[in-house]
Amino acid sequence: MPLAHARVAAVLAAVLAVPSVLAPGLGPARAQEAAAVDEMPVGVSVNGRMLPDPGLLVLRQGRMFVRRSDFEAWGLMLQAAPGEQVLNGESYVPLDDVKGLSARLDDDGATLHVTADASLFPRLTMEPDHRRVPVAAAIPAQFLAYDLTLSRWSGDTQLSGLVDTGFSGEWGVATSSFLVGGSGSSRLSASRLETSVRRDFPERRMRLVVGDAVGRGAPWSRPVRYGGLFLGTDFSLDPQAVNYPLPMISGSAITPSTIELLSESSRRSLDVGPGAFDLALQPRLNGAGQVTMSVRDLAGNVRQVTRSFYASPNLLRPGLSEFAFEAGALRRGFGYDSFDYGPVFAAAGLRRGISGSLTLEGRVEISGATRMAGLGGSVVLASLGEVSVSGAVSQGRAGTGTLVRASAQRITPAYTISASYERADAGFRQVGESRFNGGGRSEMVVAGGLSLGAWGSINASYARLRQGVGGDAPTRFDLASAYYSTNLAGAYLSAGVQYTRRLHDRRAGEFDGGNSRSLGLFGSLTIPLGPRRHVSAIAEQRRAAVTFDQNLPEGTGVGLRALAGIDHGAPWLEGGVAYRSGIGDLRVDAASRRGRQGIQFNARGGALRIDGELMATQHIDEGFALVDVASETPVTVMVENRPRPRKAGVGKPVIVTGLQPYAENHIAIDPSEVSIEAGLDTQAQVVAPGWRQAVRVGFGSAERLGARLRLVDPRGNPVQTGSTFAWNGGSGIVGYDGEVWIEDYAGGGMVLRVTGANGACRVAVPQLSGEARLMASAPVVCIPESEWALAHAGARHQPQLADAVIPRKEPRP
C-alpha cells in the first residue's frame, strides 16, 4: 500500500475508534486520549495561497473542525458558529457550518484547501492620511505694519493709509488697526478700524475673539461687523484636514491584489489583502468625474470597473460639525467713526454633515430691531451635481417677512453650469440692514463654462436683479456677459462682450420708462517675457492701451510699470518704479489721463520685535520665526528652499516673516556656506507657528562652538600625532603638527588632558574668538602633569601661565 494511502487509512481508523470525541459529557481522561488521536497538523491553503504556519485539524464523523484561533490567524472573520464545541479548553469550529466557506483535504491528508468568500475577510477602508502638525511654542513678539500713500492729483494733495499694530505670545494675539488720512486743506486724522484679542485652539479647531469681529453669516444672511465676543469653529487651524466627504469606490478581492485607480487628474496604485475594500479618492478631485479601478490578483487576473462620482467641498463629512456663537453691539460708521456702536446683537449657527451626500445648516440672529431664523441644506445627487435649498423668516419693524433661496451646480472637466434664485418679500429684513423702502426683491443668476481643450474655453453669465417688487417704484437691472480665452504660443488671449440694461418705472409692475442700455466689447493679449515680465495690450469701449510690467521679486529688486494709450480720445500715460528691500517696498507712480495729471508715493513695510530683537521687515502677516545660527561666518537662511535677504550668525539672529500658520514650514541654512568645523546640522527644521505668533528656530548653540588648537611641549615641539586628549564633555585624537579640534568649545578655562607615548600633560585652553578660534594661529603649551600642579597654582597669581602661548621653535636635532 502506498504511504499516502496508509496515512489516510490510519486517520479514518482513529476517527471510527473514537466516534464521540467532541460529544457533550465526555470524561476528562477520554477527552484527552481522543484529542491525542484526532488533532493533526496540516498545511493550509486559503484561496490558493499557502500560509506559512500549519493549522490543527480534528476529524469527526466525516466533518472537519479547526480551532477558532487558527481560523482567525488565516485572516478570516467568524461570528458565532452553531456547531462550535470545546476540546481541552480550545474552541473548535466545524468548517461546513461557516457560510461562504468550503474546505477539502488533499489525497495525502497533508494540506487543507480552504476557499473563502470576500465577505469573510475584514473590510478595509482607506482614506487620506491626516497628520496634525504640532504647533510650536510661541515667544513674545510685537509688530507694526503700515501701507501709506501720499498723492497729488490735479493740485490736490492727500495722504491715506493703513496702520496695523499688535503683540502676541503663548496667550494669543492682540491687534488694533487704524485708517489714517488727510488732505492739503484738512489736518491729518485717524479712524480706528478693529481692536481685538484672539486666542486659537488648534487641537479643537476653535477660535475665540474678544473685541471687533465680522459675523459668520449664512447663505440667506449677510455678515455684520460688531464689537463683542466670537466663539466658533475655524477649519483653517488644521489646514491639512479634509473636511468634505470624499467619493468612495468599493470592491473586493479573494487574494492579495494590486489596485490601480485612474482618473483624469490623478493615478494611484496600492496593495490590498483579501476581502472587501472602500477607497477614498484623492482630495483634489472636485465636481463630477469618472475613475477606473483595475484589480490585479496574484495569478495576474485583471478585473476593471468604471465608476462615476461627484465631490463637493461645500459639504461637511458625516458627523463633522461647524458652529459659531456671536454676541455684541453692531458697528456703525465703520472707517469713519472709531467708536460708533449700535444695537445689541446675538447670533448662533450650526452646520453638520448628516451623510456623505447631505449637510444641514441653521442660524438664528437677534438684534434690537430684527429677529431672524433660517434653515438650509446641501445635497449631492448621485453623480449629477449639487443642489442647495434654504429659507428664512424675519420679524421686526417692517413686519414678518420670508426669504427663499435655491441653487444648483454641476462641475465637470468639460463644462460647468450653475444657477441660483433668491426671493425676499417686502417684510423680510436681515440683522443690520438699513433698508426702508417698500417692496420685495429677487435675484436670478445663471452661469456656465465650456472647455474647448487646446482651443481654449468659453464662459457666459446672466444676472437679473429686481428691487421694490410690489412697491411704487420697481427697478430691474440685467447684466449679461460672455468671453473667450485661450493660449496662443505661450501668450494669453481674452475677448468678450458685456450687455447691461436698467429699467425703472413708477407704475408698479411695469418696466417701460427710464430705460438705459449699454453694450461693450473688451479684449486683452498678454505676452510673457520671462518669470517676472510681460507685455499686455487691452482694448474696451473708447479706451485702448499697451502696458509693460516687471513684478517685484520675492527678495530684493526693482519692479517697473509703463502704460501708453488712448482714453475717450485723450492721451493716457502711466509709469511707475518700485524697489523692494529687506525693510519694505517703496513705489513711485505718475499718470496723465483725460487732461488730469498726478503722482503718488507709496511705502509698505513693518517693524517686528521678537524676544528683544528689533528689525524692519517687508511685511507683517501670517507667522514669524526668530532664527539663531551658531556660526562665526554669516550664512543664508532659507524658507522652503528660497533664500532670505538677511544672513544669520553668532549674535545676529534673523527674523523670518510670511510663514504659513498651523502648517509645516521648512527653515534651513545654506549648507554651502557652513564650514565643516562649525559642526552645525544643516537639515531643514519643520515648524508650525500660530497666526501672527513667533517661534524660535536654532541651528547649533551660540554658547558652545568648535575651536582649533595647536599643542606643543614646553620646548616648542608639536605633541606627538596619535596621542589622545580628553576634557569634561568629550575626547579626541591629536592630529598632524599637534593640531586638535574641540567640538564643544566653551571659552577660556577649559582643561585638556593629553596622553601619549611620552606620558601625560595638560593644557589650559585660552579664550579665543573670531578667526583665532578656527585658525590655530599660535601654539599652546601642554604642561607635563608632574609640573601641572605648580604651574596651575602659580596661575592664580600669574594668569598668563594658564594661557601659556610661546613662539614656535624648530625641533632640536
TrEMBL record:
Q: Tell me which InterPro entries the record gives.
A: Fimb_usher (IPR000015), FimD_plug_dom (IPR042186)
What GO MF annotations does this protein's record show? fimbrial usher porin activity
UniProt-listed Gene3D superfamilies: 2.60.40.3110, Outer membrane usher protein FimD, plug domain
Task: Kindly indicate where the leader peptide sits in this chain.
Answer: 1-23
What name does the UniProt record give this protein?
A: Fimbria/pilus outer membrane usher protein
- The protein's superkingdom reads Bacteria
Q: Which residues form a coiled coil?
A: none
Q: List the GO terms this entry assigns under cellular component, sorted alphabetically.
A: cell outer membrane
Q: Which keywords does this Swiss-Prot/TrEMBL entry list?
A: Signal
Please give a single GO biological process term from the UniProt record.
pilus assembly
Which organism was this protein described from? Novosphingobium silvae
